[in-house]
Amino acid sequence: MIDRVHGGDVKRNIVDFSANINPLGLSPKTKAAITENIAGVVHYPEPGSRSLKKALAAFHNVRQDNLTVGNGSIELIYLIPKALKTKKILIITPTFSEYEFSAKSNGANIIFVKTEESENFRVDLNKLQKLLSRVELIFLGNPNNPTGSCLHAEELSPLVEVCARHKTVLVIDEVFMDFVETCDEDSLLSAAPENKYLLVLRSLTKFFALPGLRLGYAVGHRDLVRRLSDLQYPWNINSLAQAAGREALEDSDYMSYSREYIAGEREFLFSGLKDIKGLKAFSPSSNFVLCKLDGCAVKSAKVLNERLVKKGLIIRDCGNFRGLNEKFFRVAVRKRDENNSLIMALKEIL
Predict the structure, then answer these.
(1) Is the pLDDT of residue 9 over 90?
(2) Among 186, 276, 325, 334, fewest CB within 10 Å belongs to which?
């Protein structure tokens, strides 16, 4: 069993590179929506998040019965195997550890398919297709956390078709897709409502900097969505999260600026990291970069993190990810001065 460790559990007065959150923080409009709705916390939230579902459906041009909202995408990750009663699940590694915990908590047997460092952790789709007869469900992160690998829609289309023929549910976790410059072209969300074997997970937590409010959603065929929503508990989304989510979807200026800003900082950070001797940086697609200690005096990410904390910085040790070892770590894309501080600190330590 892998250790259950995540980024973002840090004290104040430290620059947090361990959590992959939009460094621009809350948009002024979303912050105002939260403030304006504070008085509403004395009342129960709107049942079923009806207004938020309506806003999400309009935003993605789907029907309201094609989506359900969760207390973060994590609620949905745990709900899916339970609602679909799946007992044979395929997980591509290394990836988000909660897929594995979700499968095990629901008593499922897991087939792990390991991607290789030598291939930059790219998923071998042909290999997956050969295993479909043995599984009922696949969890696939796209972009994948922590590797940063991202498959284009045209690459995934054959897998989607084969999964449907085998009646294997393909769950594509797109919680980092909003950070991808080609997100509109590479997301499979628009295809999900008409496919009984495709579910797409999205989140407002990462891109809109709302991790403390917990807000995610699933888009799929109405029959799949109904099976999930039938098991959700009442009032699962608090009133402030609902208000923030509705306002965030209206803030197109924040979305476009965030995407442009993060693309620039991602390139700056990646360029700086790959030039550091003793460090290997893997090409990113989203708002984080996977790195590996390679031929330097520091032998583990744990030791590196301890030294960085003394400089007011923290990274995500990836040693607990299945398929990685103690030399791997992940860093989030942050603001220019913070990214520069990390690069300088790593150069000094390594």
Answers:
(1) no
(2) 325
